[in-house]
Amino acid sequence: MANSATLTGAWPVAPTPFHPDGSLDLPGMRRVLDCIVDQGVDGVCILANFSEQFLISDAERETLTRLCLEHLAGRLPVIVTISHYATPIVVERARLAKQLGAVAVMMMPPYHGALLKGSAEQTYEQFARVSEVGIPIMIQDAPLSGVDLPVPLLVRMAREIPMVQHFKIESVGTATKLRALIAQGGEAIVSPLDGEEGITMLADLDAGATGTMCSAMISELIQEVVTTHRGGDRDLAVAQYTRILPAINHENRQCGFRSAKAAMLEGGVIASDFCRHPIAPLSPETRAELLGLLRPLDPISLRWGR
């Protein structure tokens, strides 16, 4: 990280491993975290969409929050995703994350399904309530919520809600939105990051992103691109990014959150890449294509447990 406030580099989302019967694989979760530590990234995010948060019970969520923060024990800073439609639940999740030592929490605006969406004022109020807990907040601006977060609203929240400091922008036209956010928000925009597995990362770094929240599939290679770009060698960053882009594209467009688990299964990190119903397993062809793109890159995830 550039300093104690600004989030830089790669912040992979930790996948959640399950046994083939669908139960949580807690030893596997510890191995996932150890693998991510060995990737040399700047931090990790847990319980996000790429952690299959929508397939995990509330009790399991608390178990995983405690396990991850206790197992990492300061080896990496942790962002805990706490999104929920109900504000009291989000606040309680934020309190637990703070109590256990998370560096920040990440939230989408309040939504439930296609039609229950928080208004601009309701969104503002939910983030303000979480801010009272006293832990830095990352706003996740993701298409999944279906809630529009225009730049003026984001800037207002950054300026008026003390703990709103970090932003994960992964909406359409991310680079354009990042430029506007940084220009209009100034110092209130502490850490502008992108997401979407890094599929638009080069343009987003050019636009001023300080880092990226990717998957845990090739985190150390994504970290290289961010570090090189921030160091001022854009030509080398382009070359590094060009090398890994086919794998990122396959992940983003074909596999989604199943990609990191497929790589970690192949690399002996986890014993199963099972995903709970109604998520279908990767087809053999899609899996083979993914692994074929990954092998020349020799990522840590593909050899960590071998």
TrEMBL record:
Gene3D superfamilies assigned: Aldolase class I
GO molecular function: 4-hydroxy-tetrahydrodipicolinate synthase activity
Pfam families: DHDPS (PF00701)
Family to which the UniProt record says this protein belongs: Belongs to the DapA family.
GO cellular component: cytosol
Record field: transmembrane: none
CDD domains listed in its UniProt record: DHDPS-like
Matches recorded under InterPro entries: Aldolase_TIM, DapA-like
Keywords attached to this entry: Lyase
Residues where pyruvate binds: M213
Top-level taxon: Bacteria
Protein name listed in UniProt: Dihydrodipicolinate synthase family protein
